[in-house]
Design a protein that fits this description.
The protein has 211 residues and is mostly beta strands. Helices cover 6% and strands 37% of the residues. The protein is built from 3 helices and 16 strands.
Length: 211
């Protein structure tokens, strides 16, 4: 997720215990790498450093600098933590992309016809999906993010190219081929970010440690 020039690396959950620790969900590829980016900033400009981090079920338990009791920890519930975009490691593979760089791209077919806009990246366990909002109708479509369905990703040009669906080939309109199933809109606020091992991959934060 991005916020201007910032990337959301995690979100604070409920207080954990009575000594000021919090539950923390990480959106980085290596989930514990969130602690390697240094101080993180909130939406309202506060800065927190992660002093300690340990795994617990499907989240981490974190101790943040300056948070010493349960009341202070509870006040941080649902706070998102950001890092500036220029602090993210450079991606070294041509088939790997940051979620923040994909969201907002125009979607066109192989003939150049506009199909909509990328509004989200999701992963429900079977690989990355891009969520596209068509420009000519309501609703969204989910498309498997691989080199067959998405042969071109041009960040500089601000667009991705979607292969035409069978219906489009028959002249029934140029529509991307949807993936069966509906998107859980609540997950748009916290997409899964583990890097897939497909030829076309996406990630919010790179799978090596920040430097």
């Amino acid at each position: 997720m991005s916020d201007g020039a910032r990337i959301c690396l995690g979100q604070i959950g409920a207080a954990h215990g009575v000594s000021g620790e919090v539950r923390l969900r990480s959106f980085t590829s290596d989930l514990d790498a969130i602690a390697d980016y240094g101080p993180l900033e909130t939406e309202d400009g506060r800065v927190f450093a992660i002093e300690s981090l340990r795994p617990a079920k499907d989240y981490f338990v974190a101790r943040l600098a300056g948070i010493h009791d349960r009341d202070a920890a509870r006040a941080l519930a649902n706070t998102r933590l950001y890092v500036s975009r220029d602090r993210l490691p450079r991606l070294e593979r041509p088939d790997e992309f940051y979620h923040a760089d994909l969201i907002g791209l125009a979607v066109v077919d192989t003939a150049g016809k506009n199909l909509g806009t990328v509004i989200g990246i999701h992963n429900f366990g079977a690989g990355d999906l891009i969520e596209v909002r068509p420009g000519d109708r309501a609703g969204t479509e989910m498309i498997a993010f691989n080199e067959i369905n998405v042969p071109v990703v041009d960040i500089r040009a601000g667009r991705i190219v979607i292969a035409r669906s069978p219906a489009a080939a028959k002249g029934d309109g140029a529509k991307p081929g949807p993936v069966t199933g509906s998107a859980d809109n609540s997950r748009a606020a916290r997409p899964l970010t583990r890097t897939t091992r497909a030829r076309r991959r996406s990630t919010l934060s790179h799978n090596r440690k920040a430097r």
